[in-house]
Write a structure and sequence with these properties.
single chain, mainly alpha, Alpha-Beta Plaits, 4-stranded antiparallel β-sheet, two-stranded antiparallel sheet, 33 helices, globular, disordered N terminus, transmembrane, CSC1/OSCA1-like_cyt
């Protein structure tokens, strides 16, 4: 150990090297002090060092203090309490929060989870499987609108099924069709359900059968267009009503992009006053480049996990040595390796301590106005369509026109758009420019195209094998059955390829570095819809390019039929019996069986026991894929509408049951996904017109008049802004509602200056300085009156000291992990369950509970007031090394009862914001005068605040 000790001493820098660093360096040499080594080196107290230089992220705890902190935090306990894990699983399932009895004690572990504060089954009821739209809005309007979209899909497919059922029956049993399309026994049964039993029938296709098909298709198309217009109108109206009913911080905020670095806040205010007369600005929150900080946060988390693994390995080696006498020989001793890890953690925290200067400004800021009407007024000049943008590009770049107007400041072009919710923002990605994003999108689309080529090669190979087997003469019944099995398996392969595309596209979309979680989900769902439709509906046409084989056993119609069966029935089956969910349940049983030998912390065990999250992007994509497939092949294969209608009903029932019974309490998503896919409904009509023209021309090449008219009608509907005309004709009186920020801010669960990592961290530092000042005051008072001890006063003083120490530790963890959610959002992980939680949420009832927030993976973040549903308003985070789609980890921050770990009260987490000076008051607000801890200690605690005795009881 002498050599190891000398090496350890060489690691510790000298005082000259540390003069610009935090004074506490005892984390590096903590193992030596516990073992009695290196006693010549004195460790300075973290509290004393902070008193002279303020709080620094480089401060670290000694091993004894760290162990004490772990003991104070039940989430770090090893082995975990699996009964608590089961209660945590029960609390995180979907429940109707409105059924909670408000008289129940929130800190009672019999009714509420101890870590997340969510209700157990004995305190809140489950949602009914027949819940209404209004009750489902409690989960987030995204879910309510999704089930409405699903209902619209079922109605549309049912309309198609009625006409297609007539065509199917008429095709098989009709007199005219029997004369013109005589059955062929060599063809499979699927050909009887298609348009022509022989495929391309030539002149025999000119009879009354084709006229009836055209009539039925025209009626179906007209009804579906009418249903789509009515549904889009009512959904738009409902979204507007919700936006006016539930006021959020985004109702008052706009995001300004491309801000010049020399443009100060006063210049921004002056520029907005030129855009509108009612341009009173409450505050401006600037954004900075925080990617380096996020990377450092991730490094610290990885190092901490490695340090914990080494400690466990060292413990096991010590136990083995005591039992068997076996000595573990390592190239680097445990002590030295742990010390090196602590040194890296210290240096990384020191680098994070550097303040962000103006050079790190990312040219974006969030501007909050005094009323909601101003947001729409300043956003109107910047809403340009594609033609206006193209003309502006020509004027500025080609003709070099003068840059002037409302959208310019000092010959510098700015852009303004309505901001998304504070929890919806990916702060780390705001620094990525438009050119870099466009390049990344080009790369992701190229990779997706390569994946589709590989998929085409796989399916083409399987189809070639089936063609070879089917081309053999005198095949037996068993061989024919085997060929049919292969045809069905090929459709299963297509479904598995679609699942693989979903995983790939999700990771590629995270590479695009979107500004918000909503844009990320939209990007995933749209790309996934396009990719799966090409793989399922377009590529089979190229595999069966010869039209005379379309209606044979291994032809196009056979492939599409089995693909629709796979989408409509196999998809819901795989969703219900999810392989990765089963694997996770097996892991839960395995860890629970270990018992005392389990090495997971309580936090990691909770993450393992949590229910799976809901993937709304995937659900929307599956719905639109089915609609596009029906629009593509309903003319040539009418039975697909019947299959899709039945499959949509099955999907609706399975998804509704699993969301309300199996999945995790979902994040509060807005209706953007459902609104976007409703806007894609005209593409379905366009696909229908194009496919009808193509298949009609192939089957009946001499008569194209009807198909041409259909195509023209579909193209006109696609390009004419029908929905805009309807919206202008149906104006809503509630759209002119005016809301004031100062009146609504007390109902907000968060705000932009609170969610901004840079400003948030500065506020936490100021609050901690105040808490440390109180702690020093109590310690000085204890030292001065150590001779004359009063039992009651001493107990009160020690209680307050411990409470302040716990609060300071919580604040330190919050500051050390201010950038963790951003660090994990675009490192190749899957943040599809990251989403805004406060959007369309019910406003607070002017009451702030004292239950502080605590995130179990792997840090504690800011303490915020809770919404009425008792759901934490913290941004969801993801554990770096376990962020797998198959085994998703925690997506919600947790609410720890005050009896478990004391932190700041929610109303004290952020002091009132001084919007004029953009500085927060360093002293946390409180109702009434601040307590005089010194006087309370001297008088034996007689000057207690009102209500404190009741809290102690």
């Amino acid at each position: 150990m002498a050599s190891a000790s000398s090496i350890e001493l060489s690691i510790i820098p000298s005082d000259e090297e540390n003069k610009d660093k935090p004074s506490s360096y005892d984390e590096i040499s903590s193992d030596k002090s516990d073992r009695g080594e290196g006693q010549g080196h004195e460790s300075t107290s973290s509290v004393d060092s902070s008193s002279s230089s303020g709080y620094s992220l480089g401060e670290s705890l000694s091993d004894s203090e760290e162990e004490r902190r772990v003991l104070d935090d039940p989430m770090e306990k090893i082995p975990p309490d699996f009964e608590w894990c089961k209660r945590h699983y029960e609390a995180n399932t979907v429940k109707n929060i409105e059924t909670i009895d408000k008289r129940m004690n929130r800190e009672d572990s019999r009714y509420f989870c101890q870590c997340c504060g969510l209700p157990l089954k004995n305190s809140a009821k489950d949602f009914s499987l027949f819940s209404t739209f209004k009750s489902l809005c409690q989960l987030g309007t995204c879910f309510a609108f999704y089930f409405r979209l699903k209902l619209f899909t079922v109605i549309s497919l049912f309309t198609w099924s009625i006409s297609c059922s007539c065509l199917v029956i008429y095709s098989v049993h009709g007199e005219d069709s029997a004369q013109e399309f005589s059955p062929n026994e060599e063809l499979a049964y699927i050909s009887d359900w298609s348009l022509g039993n022989f495929g391309k029938c030539g002149e025999n296709c000119t009879g009354s059968y084709m006229d009836k098909i055209v009539i039925f298709n025209f009626i179906s198309l007209f009804l579906i267009i009418l249903e789509g217009i009515v549904y889009r109108h009512f959904q738009t109206k409902k979204v507007d009503e919700l936006e006016q009913k539930y006021i959020t911080p985004s109702s008052f905020c706009v995001m300004v992009s491309n801000i010049h670095k020399e443009m100060a806040d006063e210049d921004i205010k002056k520029w907005f006053r030129g855009l509108t007369k009612n341009g009173e600005i409450i505050y401006i929150s600037r954004c900075y480049k925080i990617r380096d900080q996020s990377v450092r946060e991730k490094i610290i988390m990885d190092l901490k996990r490695k340090k914990r693994a080494l400690r466990l390995e060292e413990k096991e080696a010590e136990e083995r040595r005591k039992e068997t006498g076996e000595v573990v020989h390592r190239e680097i001793p445990f002590d030295l390796e742990i010390i090196k890890i602590k040194e890296k953690i210290f240096e990384t925290r020191y680098e994070m301590e550097k303040e962000l200067d103006d050079s790190e400004f990312c040219k974006k800021a969030f501007v909050v106005f005094a009323n909601s009407v101003t947001v729409s007024e300043v956003s109107v000049p910047f809403k340009l369509n594609y033609f206006q943008r193209f003309w502006e590009f020509i004027k500025l770049k080609i003709f070099m026109c003068k840059r002037q107007g409302k959208r310019f400041w000092d010959n510098h072009k700015l852009h303004v758009e309505k901001a998304v919710g504070p929890r919806d923002i990916l702060w780390e990605n705001l620094a990525v420019g438009l050119k870099h994003k466009s390049l990344r999108q080009l790369i992701t689309y190229s990779c997706t195209f390569v994946c589709l080529i590989v998929s085409f090669g796989i399916t083409l190979g399987i189809s070639s094998i089936i063609d070879v087997l089917a081309s053999q003469e005198n095949t037996s019944t068993a061989e024919d059955f085997f060929i049919g099995i292969l045809s069905f398996l090929s459709s299963i392969v297509v479904t598995l390829i679609n699942i693989a595309l979903e995983k790939i596209i999700r990771h590629l979309s995270s590479f695009e570095r979107h500004d918000s979680y909503t844009k990320f989900n939209l990007s995933v769902s749209i790309k996934l819809t396009i990719a799966t439709f090409i793989n399922t509906g377009i590529l089979p046409i190229f595999q069966n390019i010869e039209t005379h084989n379309w209606f044979h056993t291994n032809g196009l119609m056979n492939a599409i039929f089995y693909n629709m069966i796979s989408i409509a029935l196999v998809g819901p089956f795989l969703y219900a019996f999810d392989f990765w969910y089963i694997v996770k349940r097996i892991k839960m049983k395995y860890q629970e069986k270990k018992g005392e030998n389990c090495t997971l912390t309580q936090r990691e065990a909770h993450a393992l026991f949590e229910p799976p999250p809901v993937d709304m992007a995937q659900l929307h994509s599956d719905t639109m894929l089915m609609m596009f497939m029906v629009a593509m092949y309903v003319f040539i294969l009418p039975v697909v509408a019947i299959i899709a209608c039945f499959g949509s009903i099955v999907q609706f029932c399975v998804q509704r049951y699993l969301i309300l019974r199996r999945h995790k309490q979902p994040p509060q998503l807005g209706p953007e996904l459902a609104t976007m896919f409703v806007k894609l409904s005209p593409f379905m009509i366009l696909i229908y017109g194009v496919s009808l023209f193509i298949f009609h021309s192939v089957l009946l090449s001499q008569q194209r008049t009807a198909a041409s008219l259909f195509l023209i009608a579909c193209v006109l509907y696609f390009f004419i802004p029908v929905q805009g005309i309807v919206r202008r004709r149906c104006k809503y009186s509630h759209l002119n509602a005016r809301a004031e920020y100062n009146e609504c801010k007390m109902t907000f669960v968060t705000d932009y200056y609170k969610e901004n990592p840079h400003s948030r961290r500065k506020e936490l530092k100021k609050i901690e300085m105040v808490q440390r000042a109180k702690l020093r005051q109590l310690e000085e008072d204890r030292d001065q009156h150590e001779v004359q001890r009063d039992t009651e006063a001493e107990q009160l003083r020690e209680k307050k000291i411990k409470q302040l120490e716990r609060e300071i530790n919580g604040l330190r963890r919050q500051q050390m992990n201010s950038f963790v959610p951003q660090a994990q959002s675009n490192q190749g992980f899957t943040p599809y369950y990251h989403a805004p939680r406060q959007e369309y949420n019910q406003p607070l009832r002017n009451q702030f509970t004292r239950i502080p927030t605590q995130n179990p993976l792997p840090h504690s973040q800011g303490t915020y007031p809770l919404n009425p549903s008792r759901q934490s308003t913290q941004p969801p985070t993801l554990h770096p090394q376990t962020s797998n789609v198959s085994n998703p980890q925690s997506q919600r921050s947790y609410v720890r009862p005050a009896s478990t770990q004391g932190q700041l009260q929610p109303q004290q987490a952020y002091p009132p914001f001084d919007h004029q000076s953009q500085e927060s008051c360093p002293i946390p607000p409180s109702e009434g005068p601040q307590p005089n801890y010194k006087a309370e200690a001297r008088n034996g605690g007689s000057q207690k605040r009102e209500g404190e005795e009741e809290k102690e009881q």
